[in-house]
Amino acid sequence: MTETSEDVVCVVGLGYVGLPLALAFDEAGLDVVGYDVDEAKTAALSDGTDPTGEVGDGRLTASNASFTHNPAVIGRADYVIVTVPTPVDDMQNPNLEYVEASGRTIGDHITPGTTVVLESTVYPGATRKVLVPAIEAASGYAVDEEFAIGYSPERVSPGVEGRGVEDVSKIVGAGRETVREDLVSLYGRIVDAEIHPAPDIETAEAAKAIENVQRDINLALINELAMACDHMDLDTHDVLEAAGTKWNFDDTYSPGLVGGHCIPIDPLYLVYRSESDGFSPKLILQAREINEHVPTHAARLALRALNDTGRVLAESSLLLLGLAYKPNVTDVENSAVGGVVSTLQSYDVTVGGYDPHADDETIERTFDLEVHDSADFQGYDGVVLATAHDEFRDLDLASMAAELDDDPVFVDVPGIADQHRAEASGFVYDKL
Predict the structure, then answer these.
(1) What is the pLDDT of residue 160?
(2) Residue 37 and residue 13 in contact, taking contact as beta carbons nearer than 8 Å
(3) Ramachandran angles phi, psi of 333, nearest 5°
(4) Which of 48, 62, 164, 224 is 20 to 30 Å apart from 132, CA to CA?
């Protein structure tokens, strides 16, 4: 494809990844259409409403991009970029039904000469083994003949300033060198950071997986330290602060819940492919096990505090502050906070929740708890601060304690509150 302002880009899947990508290409001067199977979503986007909260209504209204649930628009695209979800199933195996379905839809409408790029996280080999066959079967075309294929994993971090589409270096892999060069040029129009050409698609797929495997393992190390420190009656944060004075100690990690679209899922994709080829990566699996246990551990800290204050668990109540999977985002459906809720409820503790970013209806659908539209502490025995939203970094601890019942409990999962002020305010305080 030639690099002209007339190139047409169709983004398939308009969630936290696809929507910012579509607007980035639009702002770079390309003709952009966004396709999603969710008619209500595309209608909202066409009306200038951003349901993801990632780009904002103003930027959406100023855009020239169009949005539709009609897949026929794929037929006019020079580039089709796929950004659909890649979850795991109940057995923790990769679920690529969305990738396969998008491949069939693309195949039904694709025209010769189109380049298809997958950005969704998959295991090494999935682009060729899942997406390509679906396109070929539906279209009757052959890859590298009538259409080209590439892989460029998404790397944005929702809710984090400076980690958007234009800020983060981009990996590009392709079926042919000429296609890779073309995609380097295409992404170069929207990415200010480095464009890294991978030698092949499988390398790019594996690189995306290992990025989050590394984070998962590092977080698991710190979370396991937190659980060990709890047994040794040590303050994890004090230990990390002291260790961080050495020049080669990585002090970028702190204990906490591990949720989201990537870290809890990407390692399982790499494990699946590796085990399929005869090798079980034990460290990766162990890290997942540790991080999956953190919500239970956090809930047990709260249960212990309730017991220590002489309360009957079945007559106790706690307010959870922050239900999203990470600070300053709206997404609760991929949150590890659900494990905290279910553990507390298994002991018959009444649980309420408040999140200043998430939609109340979505919270109610995702968690079985009473939702508050403000931080209303009346009637609760304590608070579990689960997600470190900016709004929770300067809580008026004295006022909180005054609204709660006597000897209030405060479990500060991310450890962002001032422990001395919390205890001086009357809280029975604990943290990971």
Answers:
(1) 66
(2) no
(3) -70, -20
(4) 164
Taking residue 309's Cβ as centre, other Cβ atoms within 10 Å add up to 16
The catalytic site residues sit at: 262
Would you state the structure tokens that stand for residue 88, as one six-digit string?
A: 């795991």
With CA atoms as reference, report the closest residue to 223 among 261, 254, 194: 254
Do residues 352 and 322 make contact, with C-beta atoms less than 8 angstroms apart?
no
φ/ψ of 116, rounded to 5, equals -105, 130
Task: Please give the distance of CA 398 from its chain centroid, rounded to a whole number.
Answer: 34
Which helix (H) or strand (E) covers residue 396, if one does? none
Cα(132)–Cα(120) distance, rounded to whole angstroms?
Answer: 14
Note the pLDDT of residue 42.
96
Distance in angstroms (rounded) separating the CA atoms of residues 140 and 131: 14
Per the listing, tokens 């968690």 go with 367
As given in the structure block, the two tokens for residue 268 are 């399982």
User: What are 326-335's pLDDT values in tens digits?
Assistant: 999 888 988 9
User: Do residues 288 and 221 touch, judged by C-beta distance below 8 A?
Assistant: no
Cβ–Cβ under 8 Å, residues 420 and 413: no
| Sheet containing 317-321: order of strands | 370-371, 350-354, 317-321, 382-385, 409-412, 428-431
What is the predicted pLDDT for the residue at 53? 77
Beta bridge partners of 354: 321
Beta carbons of 150 and 186 less than 8 angstroms apart? no
Contact 294, 257 (CB under 8 A): yes
- CB 360: neighbour CB atoms within 10 A? 13
Give Cα separations from 16 to 60, 85, 155, 157, 207 (angstroms).
14, 10, 11, 9, 21
At 159 the pLDDT is 64
CA distance 356 to 106: 38
Query: Which DSSP string corresponds to 203-231?
Result: HHHHHHHHHHHHHHHHHHHHHHHHHHHHH
How would residue 2 be classed by pLDDT, with cut points 50, 70 and 90? Answer: very low
For the chain, the straight-line distance linking the first and the last C-alpha, in angstroms and rounded, comes to: 53
